[in-house]
C-alpha cells in the first residue's frame, strides 16, 4: 500500500474513530489484497509507511466478499464488478482477506 | 548490566519514509533513533542492542555518486560510534541492494565492525558483495519483512558478540569461505558414499557446490557468412596502447569501444592488454593472440566474411561481477544490433 494511501487511511481513522471506518479493498490479487488488509489492521508489514507499527485494527473487506456484495444494489454490482469477479481468483482473495480480518480486526 | 550494543541502520528514501521514486535523488541524511523497518529491528534486538541512529540516502543519488555517497554515508554512520551496522533489507531492489552492499562493505573496511544486510539471491548486490559481507537471504519483496527482520537481527547479534556463524543455520548467503575441519571418513570414502546415494536416487549433500551458470541457447546459424558483418568483442583486456579509458586490471567497472578501421594487424606498439589475471607477456608481444584482428582481415580479404566491424569492444573479465558483465553485454549487444552486425566472435584470455 503506497505511502499516500496509508496516510489517508490513518487520517480518516483519526478523524472519525477507527470503529467508524470500514476499508473495502479492490485488489486484483490475493497476496496484494492480504498485504493491504494487514496494513490497515496490524500495521504496514513493510515498515515503510505511516502505518508502520500502527495497529488500527480496522474492519476490512474485499469487494468480492459475499457480505459486501449483499450490501450493494445488484444492478450496480453487475455493472461495476461482475466482469472482474469472473477473472479474479475470488476464493483465494476471500480466504486471504478473511484470515487477516479474523486475526487483526478489532471492529 | 553490560552496555547495550550501539547499532546504526541504513535505509533508502522509501523505507526511510521520505518518499518514493521522486525522492530517490536525495543526499544522505541521518536521524537519531530508528525509522521505518528499524522499528521491527528494535523489537527483534530486544534489550541487547539499540538503534542509536538511522542513515537514509536516495537510491539514485547513491547509484550515480557511488564513491562520494559511500563516503558521506560512512561519515554519518561513524558519527554515532556504532558497534554494529544493519542495512536494508533490500529484497530484490537492485540499486538499494547495491547501496546496502557498498555501505556494509565500506563500514567493515573502515570502521572494522560487524555488518549485516538482507537481499533476495538474485539482487545484483549479492554478486557484488557476498564475498565481503554477511547477506541474509530474503524474499523478493517487502512482503517478506516480517521473516527477514528476526533472521537479520539474530545474525547481527551473533556477529556483534563474536559468536561463530554458519550460513546453513543463520540463513545468510554463502561467502565462498572454506573452513578446515577433521572429518571421520577420508575424502574418497565420502565421495563414493555420495555417488552410491546419487545412483540410488537418494538425497545427498555436496561438499563443494558448483557455481550456477546461465545456459544460453545459440542463435540460428548465419546463412551467408560471405555477406555478414562480424564484430570482435573480448574480455581479455586488449586496449589501445596506454589504456586510454583506464579499464581496471581486475573487477572492471567499464568496457571500451575502439576503432580498428585501416588496422590490418595489432602490434606491440599499437595495442596491449589491461588484464591483470594472466601473464601479459604474450598478449603484449602480439595482441592478435587475444583479439585476432590479423586473421579476421585475412578472412575479409578471402571473402570468407563480408567485413570486420569497424569497432571492437573490450573489457577485463578478471573478477568482474556477473551483474556488471551482463550490463556491459546488454549495452554492447544493443550497439552491435544497431550497427547491423550479424555475428560476434567473443574471445577471452
How is the topology of this model organized?
The complex is a heterodimer of chains A (107) and B (349).
Chain A: H1 3-16, E1 22-25, H2 30-41, E2 59-62, H3 66-69, H4 74-80, H5 82-87, H6 90-104
Parallel strand pairs in A: 1-2
Chain B: E1 5-12, E2 29-32, H1 38-45, E3 49-57, H2 59-64, H3 66-79, E4 84-91, H4 94-110, E5 115-119, H5 124-129, E6 134-137, H6 145-160, H7 167-170, H8 187-199, E7 229-234, E8 238-240, E9 256-259, E10 271-273, H9 281-285, H10 293-302, E11 307-308, E12 311-314, H11 322-338, E13 343-347
Helix pairs in contact in B: 1-6, 3-4
Question: Could you explain how this protein is built, in words?
Answer:
- The complex is a heterodimer of chains A (107) and B (349).
- Chain A has 107 residues and is mostly helical.
- Chain A has one domain (3-104).
- Chain A is 54% helix and 7% strand.
- Chain A has helices at residues 3-16, 30-41, 66-69, 74-80, 82-87, 90-104; strands at residues 22-25, 59-62.
- In chain A, strands 1-2 form a two-stranded parallel sheet.
- Chain B has helices spanning 38-45, 59-64, 66-79, 94-110, 124-129, 145-160, 167-170, 187-199, 281-285, 293-302, 322-338; strands spanning 5-12, 29-32, 49-57, 84-91, 115-119, 134-137, 229-234, 238-240, 256-259, 271-273, 307-308, 311-314, 343-347.
- The mean pLDDT of chain B is 93.
- Chain B is an alpha/beta fold.
- The radius of gyration of chain B is 25 Å and the shape is globular.
- Chain A binds chain B through residues 2-3, 31, 35, 45-50, 52-53, and chain B through 14-15, 17, 19-20, 36-40, 142-143, 145-146.
Amino acid at each position: 500500500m503506497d505511502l499516500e494511501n496509508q496516510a489517508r487511511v490513518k487520517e480518516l481513522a483519526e478523524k472519525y474513530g477507527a470503529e467508524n471506518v470500514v476499508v473495502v479493498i479492490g485488489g486484483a490479487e490475493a497476496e496484494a489484497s492480504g498485504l493491504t488488509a494487514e496494513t490497515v489492521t496490524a500495521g504496514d508489514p513493510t515498515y515503510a509507511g505511516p502505518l508502520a507499527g500502527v495497529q488500527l485494527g480496522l474492519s476490512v473487506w474485499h469487494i468480492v466478499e459475499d457480505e459486501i456484495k449483499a450490501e450493494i444494489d445488484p444492478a450496480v454490482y453487475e455493472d461495476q464488478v461482475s466482469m472482474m469477479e469472473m477473472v479474479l481468483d475470488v476464493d483465494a482473495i476471500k480466504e486471504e482477506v478473511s484470515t487477516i480480518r479474523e486475526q487483526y480486526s478489532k471492529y | 548490566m553490560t552496555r547495550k550494543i550501539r547499532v546504526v541502520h541504513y535505509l533508502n528514501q522509501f523505507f526511510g519514509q521520505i518518499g518514493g521514486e521522486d525522492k530517490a535523488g536525495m543526499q544522505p541524511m541521518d536521524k537519531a533513533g530508528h525509522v521505518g523497518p528499524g522499528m521491527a529491528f528494535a523489537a527483534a534486538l530486544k534489550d541487547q542492542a539499540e538503534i542509536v541512529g538511522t542513515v537514509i540516502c536516495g537510491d539514485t543519488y547513491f547509484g550515480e555518486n557511488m564513491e562520494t555517497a559511500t563516503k558521506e554515508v560512512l561519515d554519518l554512520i561513524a558519527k554515532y560510534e556504532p558497534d554494529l551496522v544493519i542495512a536494508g533489507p533490500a529484497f530484490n531492489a537492485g540499486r538499494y541492494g547495491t547501496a546496502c552492499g557498498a555501505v556494509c562493505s565500506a563500514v567493515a573496511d573502515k570502521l572494522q565492525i560487524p555488518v549485516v544486510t538482507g537481499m533476495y539471491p538474485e539482487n545484483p548486490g549479492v554478486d557484488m558483495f557476498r564475498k565481503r559481507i554477511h547477506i541474509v537471504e530474503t524474499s523478493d519483496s517487502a512482503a517478506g519483512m516480517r521473516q527477514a527482520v528476526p533472521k537479520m537481527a539474530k545474525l547481527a547479534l551473533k556477529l556483534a558478540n563474536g559468536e561463530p556463524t554458519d550460513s546453513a543455520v543463520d540463513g545468510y548467503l554463502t561467502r565462498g569461505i572454506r573452513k578446515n575441519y577433521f572429518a571421520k571418513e577420508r575424502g574418497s570414502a565420502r565421495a563414493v558414499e555420495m555417488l552410491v546415494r546419487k545412483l540410488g536416487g537418494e538425497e545427498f549433500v555436496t561438499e563443494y557446490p558448483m557455481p550456477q551458470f546461465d545456459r544460453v541457447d545459440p542463435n540460428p546459424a548465419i546463412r551467408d557468412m560471405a555477406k555478414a558483418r562480424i564484430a570482435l568483442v573480448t574480455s581479455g583486456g586488449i586496449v589501445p596502447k596506454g589504456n586510454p579509458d583506464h579499464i581496471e586490471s581486475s573487477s572492471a567497472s567499464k568496457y571500451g569501444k575502439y576503432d580498428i578501421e585501416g588496422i590490418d594487424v595489432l602490434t606491440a606498439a599499437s595495442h596491449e592488454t589491461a588484464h591483470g589475471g594472466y601473464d601479459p607477456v604474450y598478449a603484449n608481444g602480439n595482441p592478435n593472440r587475444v583479439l585476432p584482428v590479423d586473421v579476421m582481415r585475412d578472412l575479409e580479404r578471402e571473402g570468407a566474411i563480408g567485413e570486420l566491424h569497424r569497432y571492437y569492444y573490450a573489457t577485463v573479465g578478471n573478477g568482474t561481477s556477473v551483474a556488471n558483465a551482463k550490463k556491459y553485454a546488454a549495452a554492447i549487444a544493443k550497439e552491435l544490433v544497431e550497427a547491423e552486425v550479424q555475428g560476434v566472435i567473443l574471445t577471452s584470455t
